[in-house]
Amino acid sequence: MSLRPILETRQAAPTREGAGVKLHRAFGFQDPSELDPFLLFDDFRNEVPRDYLAGFPWHPHRGIETITYVLSGTVEHKDSLGNSGTLGAGDVQWMTAGSGILHQEMPKGNASGQMHGFQLWGNLPSAQKMAAPRYQDVQGKDIPDIVDDDGTRVRVIVGTFWGKTGPVDGIAADPQYLDISVPAGVRKTFKIDTYRRAFAYVFEGQAAFADASGPQGILLEKEVAGQEVNIRDMSGNRTLVRFGTGDEVTVQAGPDGVRFLLISGAPINEPVAWHGPIVMNTRAELEQAFRELRNGTFIRPAH
Closest Cα to residue 101, out of 132, 136, 138? Predict the structure, then answer.
């Protein structure tokens, strides 16, 4: 077994999207090979309704998948194919944009005005970029929720973990998407297949992640038996941790415990031509998509 080294940690940066929604972006519009097959990750946590109610009005997507996970509040959505619905707390929507779709997402806070959720963009391989769009809307009650003997809790949104398989299926990048809570002071190791690219996103509490590039990947805050310890990463709220190659991630929760997403997927390893919400393989394909947007032929008829 090999511990994954920490390649980078970074704080999610405040930005605005849609019609002026305030959110934090952990990564996006950077070198797409860094976290291939993932392109962008946003944390839309807010307690001030005027900062999110304008939402994300009608906009296009092609060549990617968008994964929306709601923790509090709701998100109302509609699209150009006539679909509509509402995501509530604990729900997930995995939208495969494929050949193209126009949609809108309008966040609504809970009774206290709080809104919190995440959106992840996953790339599609060239063979699936022009596939028919589809949705997988999953209610929170259908997501496996596992509690280990030490109190560690894992929601398995996608993939198989600890003998449970998440309800989203047929995804190109063979992803694993886990929502993990580790109690205060508990040290825990999680297995990730070596072929996957992986990152963690800490959004509650604090934790130290062991780093294989340090001395023995030790994970304590003080010297032990005369050995220098590796405390390279002590991650708090809105922290992205990007891992290198290996098959284990070890975390020790801070004094208030920690909750984080652990997300991994198989790299696609294809060229990327990317502008805004449209991601293709070549510049010519990208230019064609925008021509179709302008002339009204972007949406393919249903087969």
Answer: 132
Q: Do the annotations mark residue 303 as ligand-binding?
A: no
- 123: domain CATH number is 2.60.120.10
* Annotated binding-site residue? 59: yes
Q: Is there a domain that residue 272 lies in?
A: no
Q: Total structural domains in the chain?
A: 1
Length of the chain counted residue by residue: 303
Please indicate, yes or no, if residue 285 is contained in any of the structural domains. no
Do the domain assignments include residue 96? yes
CB 87 within 8 A of CB 70: yes
Instruction: Answer left, alpha or beta for residue 28, where phi above 0 means left and psi between -120 and 50 means alpha.
Output: left
CB atoms within 10 A of CB 122: 26
Residue 255 domain boundaries:
6-265
> Judging by beta carbons within 10 Å of its beta carbon (0-12, 13-18, 19+), is residue 199 exposed, middle or buried?
buried
Please tell me the distance from the alpha carbon of residue 217 to that of residue 203, in angstroms, as a whole number. Answer: 23
In a domain, 299, yes or no: no
pLDDT in tens, 67-117: 999 999 999 999 888 888 899 999 999 999 999 999 999 999 999 999 999
Q: How is residue 242 written in tokens?
A: 């990007």
50-68 confidence digits (pLDDT tens)? 999 999 999 999 999 999 9
